[in-house]
Structure formats: structure tokens, C-alpha cells
Input
Amino acid sequence: MDVKTGFFYLFSVVLLFAAFRVVTARNPVHAVLYLMLAFSQASAVWFLLNAEFLAILLVLVYLGAVMVLFLFVVMMLDVNVDTLRKGFWNNFPLAATLGAIVALEMAAVLMSGFRLSQAPAILAASGGLPVSNSKALGILLYTEYLMPIQIAASILLVAMIAAIALTLRERKDSKAIDPSIQVRVRASDRLSVLKVPVTQTAPAPLAPEAAQESK
Output
């Protein structure tokens, strides 16, 4: 067994353990951390399979953005684990059936093998030199699929600008403060002294005899 095969088995074992702990962990934060470990091991396996584009995409998109967001959401929410586990055995038959179907489908795909009919075409186009799949994908996207890429980029740009415009629209119930107005503020603009007229005259002082009687 060579070094590459040894690393493959190592990453696969850790991946299976992490995936198992994602399902069995009682603490949701621990489950998210195990899921991040599973994604990192899957990325390493894809590196060994010469799928570096998918590996880097998994690290940047899922580990760097999605899973961090999940982790913050789970940590900020007060999740009652006991309440979530009440219906576990009621949903277990359906979950086991779906899991068995997914396992059978994966076994059928793995037993049928993979077709490498596209690999010779890539090698022939590159003059017989080995080309990484990232370079081949980039060449394909920006030659044959250049127009769809530009259309998708324009749609994403419009969506991003629309989201920013909706966020920055002026609302009546907003309590935002303009710093430029705060800098130019004057005391006379914030405080005004009003002379309030006397509406009730002060009572006349009582005579000494009346004061003693009131006591």
C-alpha cells in the first residue's frame, strides 16, 4: 500500500467517524463542529482524487462561510435538545428507510464504476500534457460557455445591487443618526428656555395665631 492509499483510508475513516458523530451528538454545537471536520476530510479526499477545484470550493464556501454561519446561529439559539428528541423513535422508520435507499443508490453507483471517456479528450486537447481539472474547467467555461457565464454574472450583479438598495432605503421608523448633523449641532438648536407665566398666585402667609391653630 502506497502513501496515497494510506492517506485515503485515513481521511475516509475520520470522515465516517465525523459523519456518525454529526448524527449522534447531543449538543448541536458539537454536531456542527463534527460536520466541519467531515467537510475538511471530504476536501482532503477530493484532493487525493485530483479534484482540487471541488476541494477548494468545499473549503471556501462551506467551511469558510456556510458552516461558520450555522455555528453562530446554533450558538445564539436556545435549542432545547430534549424537546427535539421526543419524536425521534416516531420518525426513525422513515429515516432508516431513506438512509437505506441512499446507501443502495451509492452502492449501485460505486459498483457500476466510473467512465473516463472524457479524460483522453482533455489530454488530446492539451497536446498530451497532463492538465488539472480546474484549468480544464476554466478553459471550458470561458470558451464554450462564455455567454451563459456572462448572463449569470449580470443577473447576480443586479440581484446584489437590488439587495443593497432595499437595505439602504430610507425608512420612517429608522433611528439612524447622521454624523455630519451631530458635528454641526449647536446648543441653541437643542435647548430653548421658555418663560412660563405664573398661573396661580402664592397663598398669603397666615397670621401667627392661625398658624398655631392649624398645628
Q: What stands out?
A: The CA atoms of residues 89 and 108 lie 29 Å apart. The mean pLDDT is 79. The chain has eleven helices and no strands.
